[in-house]
């Protein structure tokens, strides 16, 4: 079956599309980012590939603030394969080809070529209830950030001369509104979990993993569901660690160059930060993660590196618990899970 590789550079109002075949690209045009635009795009693609043998369409588009999701879902429903590669990987691919110009047309062509030459993993949407949970969590984070900003502003203005009396009043009013809205949102999150007992049960199991608490359990759950969806349940813990960007990265060349060992940082920076802070808190308690951390430090590993390793361990344990739908058992009761589990 012939695979037709299509690249799309998308924005809020419109998207630029291109096709890559063999070693040449073909511009397909610009289309509105609407249902009518999607249908027009499909018609142009069919015309451009008319007379070809049986074909499978492969659409490649970068995550762009959610503007791409409408087209991605439409393509999936139309039977197309869809990839949403890491923008960093596409940029590295483009630089490797010596491409200097950056326009919407060039980006669409590069995405189509990237799909043809790199064959990126196929994307699948999250289940509706998980996608809704993620949107609630995102909104909660935004409100918490706004609330923190207003509280810092209130503190900075406290006692400062020359400030009109109305200014602190408006700040307090906004703080009260944000607190009330945040409380309503938190109640809705709990109601959402009650409406979907399988999510609530999975979260309850994850809470038994050292380093997993009320502030990070739902974010972790969404990550694990996304990984399960992307890999159709066959993903390994080692690959999950790489997906998040916590996998070790060695820099060596010849016999003289030995760069500092680090991590790849290929995935979501916020998730890595969340896991790192989780590890930082968990190693202060008496649990399997503290034992793991102290063992590494006792062998001479730097404390920061040991904390990164502890972050990986939380992720590996959490994946094992979620994948097997079983309660966490402390390392003293079972062999320590391997990163390739």
Report on the structure:
The protein folds into three domains: 2-118, Nucleotidyltransferase, domain 5 (2-Layer Sandwich), CATH 3.30.420; 128-195; 217-333, no CATH class. 55% of the residues lie in helices and 13% in strands. Helix 5 (128-157) runs antiparallel to helix 6, helix 9 (237-244) crosses helix 12 (303-324) and helix 10 crosses helix 12 (303-324). The two termini are 34 Å apart. The longest helix is centred in the middle third of the chain and has 30 residues, at 128-157. The chain is an alpha/beta fold and 341 residues long. The protein is built from twelve helices and nine strands.
What's the layout of helices and strands?
Blueprint: E1 2-10, E2 14-21, E3 24-32, H1 35-48, E4 55-61, H2 69-77, E5 81-83, H3 87-96, H4 104-118, H5 128-157, H6 166-195, H7 197-206, H8 217-231, H9 237-244, E6 248-249, E7 252-253, E8 257-258, E9 262-263, H10 269-282, H11 288-298, H12 303-324
Parallel strand pairs: 1-4, 4-5
Antiparallel strand pairs: 1-2, 2-3, 6-9, 7-8
Helix pairs in contact: 5-6, 5-8, 8-12, 9-12, 10-12, 11-12
- In spatial order, strands of the major sheet run 3-2-1-4-5
Beta-strand portion reads 5-15%
Let me know the average pLDDT.
91
CATH superfamily descriptor of the largest domain:
ATPase, nucleotide binding domain
Fraction in helix: 55-70%
Total count of helical runs of at least 4 residues = 12
What is the overall shape?
globular
């Amino acid at each position: 079956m012939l695979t037709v590789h299509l690249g799309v550079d998308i924005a809020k109002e419109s998207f630029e599309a291109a096709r890559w075949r063999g070693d040449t690209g073909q511009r397909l045009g610009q289309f509105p980012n609407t249902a009518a635009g999607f249908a027009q795009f499909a018609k142009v693609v069919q015309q451009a590939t008319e007379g070809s043998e049986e074909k499978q369409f492969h659409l490649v588009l970068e995550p762009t603030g959610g503007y791409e999701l409408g087209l991605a879902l439409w393509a999936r429903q139309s039977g197309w394969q869809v990839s949403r590669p890491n923008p960093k990987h596409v940029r590295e691919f483009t630089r490797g080809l010596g491409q200097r110009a950056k326009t919407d047309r060039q980006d669409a062509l590069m995405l189509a070529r990237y799909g043809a030459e790199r064959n990126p993993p196929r994307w699948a949407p999250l289940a509706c209830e998980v996608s809704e949970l993620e949107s609630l969590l995102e909104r909660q984070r935004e409100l918490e950030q706004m609330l923190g900003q207003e509280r810092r502003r209130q503190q900075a203005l406290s006692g400062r001369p020359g400030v009109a009396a109305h200014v602190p009043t408006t700040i307090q009013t906004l703080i009260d509104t944000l607190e009330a809205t945040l409380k309503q949102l938190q109640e809705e999150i709990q109601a959402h979990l009650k409406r979907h007992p399988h999510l609530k049960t999975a979260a309850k199991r994850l809470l038994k993993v050292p380093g997993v608490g009320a502030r990070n359990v739902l974010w972790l759950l969404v990550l694990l569901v996304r990984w399960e969806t992307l890999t159709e349940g066959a993903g390994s813990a080692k690959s999950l660690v790489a997906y998040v960007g916590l996998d070790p990265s060695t820099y060596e060349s010849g016999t003289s160059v030995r760069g500092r060992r680090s991590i790849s940082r290929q995935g979501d920076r916020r998730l890595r930060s969340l896991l790192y802070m989780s590890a930082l808190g968990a190693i202060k308690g008496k649990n399997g993660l503290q034992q793991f951390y102290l063992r590494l430090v006792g062998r001479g590993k730097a404390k920061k590196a040991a904390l990164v390793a502890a972050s990986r361990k939380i992720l590996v344990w959490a994946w094992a618990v979620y994948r097997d739908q079983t309660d966490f058992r402390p390392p003293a009761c079972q062999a320590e899970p391997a990163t390739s589990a």
